[in-house]
Amino acid sequence: MSDQYGLIAAIFSAIATFLAAIASWRAPITAAKLAEMLRSHAEQTNEQKRAKLRLFTTLMQERAAIFSESAVQSLNLIDVVFNDCAEVREAWSELFFSFDSKNHVPEHAQQERLRKLLAAMAREVGLADKLKTDDLGRVYFPTILAQDQFIKNMERQNKLQQLQNETSPTANTASPSASIWPPKPI
Asked: Quick check: 39 pLDDT over 60?
């Protein structure tokens, strides 16, 4: 009977040795895969933080002219970049609603919603304890830039008016048959 126990013990000892050998062989591979997975996750997290910070800083730079091209591009990226932050997306939704002229939201209310969005973004990127509401609302927009913007807007309105006058039926003095546009169907 003791021979049977000895045989069983030898078999279990061989199995344990075999499993230890496999574990010793697989451990570095498993550790390398785990390390790569952790590194990749950390890199992805850091890139997401950088994207959030870039978007936030762009909107902070453009808060005096929120309708600039770079501000509009940044606003349109909020749902993607801050996809994991409901507070930011809700604040963006409120600001977006205020941009629709049919909603008749006054400019001061739009500015307040913009500050609310910036505050939510500041909390998400870890700057909330360093930035106050006054910091988010303080903008430098010199008169010369405001005048340049006014001139560009007036030029754009004039060009639009000219185009509308050129395309209106009363402005077209040529006979319809002499026109090459729109082309006649074949």
From this structure: yes
